[in-house]
C-alpha cells in the first residue's frame, strides 16, 4: 500500500500526457479537417489510451501480468472504456450545449477528464497491471519453488 501515492502521481502524469494527445488530436481533426466532434473523439480516445498504456506500463505499474503485449493492451483498452464512458458522456453534453466548445472540443475533453480518472486508475491497477497471474505458482507451465 505504501506505493499507492507514487502510483497515483505517475498515473496523473500519464493522464496529463493522455489529455494532451486526446485534446490535440480531437482539436486537429475538428478544426483542420472538419471532422464531426463526436466521431473525432472516438479516434482521439484510442490514441490517448494507447499513449497512457505505454506510459503506465513503464512508469506507473511495475508488477504486470504475464499477458502478451497485445493482450495487455487489449485489457487496458477495455478497462479504460468504463472511464471513457463517463468521460465521453460529459464531453458530449458540453459539446451539445456549447457552440464555443463545438469549435474548441479540447475544452470538452478537459471537462470529461476528471469523471473517468478514478475508474480508469482502479481498472488499470486491479485488473490490467495487478500482477496476479505471475503470483500463481500453480499455473500450468510454471514450476513451484522447492522448499529446502
What layout of secondary structure does this protein have?
Elements: H1 4-31, H2 37-60, H3 69-97, H4 99-103, H5 105-128
Helix pairs in contact: 1-2, 1-5, 2-3, 3-5
List the main descriptive attributes of the protein structure presented here:
5 helices, 148 residues, disordered C terminus, mainly alpha, single chain
For the record, give the distance between the C-alpha atoms at the N and C termini, rounded to a whole number. Answer: 30 Å
- The parts where pLDDT drops under 50 for at least 5 residues are 135-148
- Beta strand %: under 5%
Radius of gyration: 18 Å
Q: What's the multimeric state? A: single chain
- Backbone shape: elongated
Rounded average pLDDT? 86
Helix and strand element order: HHHHH
Number of E strands? 0
Described by strand count, sense and barrel closure, the largest sheet is: none
Please give the domain count. 1
Structural classification: mainly alpha
Structure explained in plain terms:
The longest helix has 29 residues, at 69-97. This protein has one domain (7-128). 74% of the residues lie in helices and 0% in strands. By secondary structure, it is an all-alpha fold. The protein is built from five helices and no strands. The chain starts with a helix and ends in a 20-residue tail after the last helix.
Amino acid at each position: 500500500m505504501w506505493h499507492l501515492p507514487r502510483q497515483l502521481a505517475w498515473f496523473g502524469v500519464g493522464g496529463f500526457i493522455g489529455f494532451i494527445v486526446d485534446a490535440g488530436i480531437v482539436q486537429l481533426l475538428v478544426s483542420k479537417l472538419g471532422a464531426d466532434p463526436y466521431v473525432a473523439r472516438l479516434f482521439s480516445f484510442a490514441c490517448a489510451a494507447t499513449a497512457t498504456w505505454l506510459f503506465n506500463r513503464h512508469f506507473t505499474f511495475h508488477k504486470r501480468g504475464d499477458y502478451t503485449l497485445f493482450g495487455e493492451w487489449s485489457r487496458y483498452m477495455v478497462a479504460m472504456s468504463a472511464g471513457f464512458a463517463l468521460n465521453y458522456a460529459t464531453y458530449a453534453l458540453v459539446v451539445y450545449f456549447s457552440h464555443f466548445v463545438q469549435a474548441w472540443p479540447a475544452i470538452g475533453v478537459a471537462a470529461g477528464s476528471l469523471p473517468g480518472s478514478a475508474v480508469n486508475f482502479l481498472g488499470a491497477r486491479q485488473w490490467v497491471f495487478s500482477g496476479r497471474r505471475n503470483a500463481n505458482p500453480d499455473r500450468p507451465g510454471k514450476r513451484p519453488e522447492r522448499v529446502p
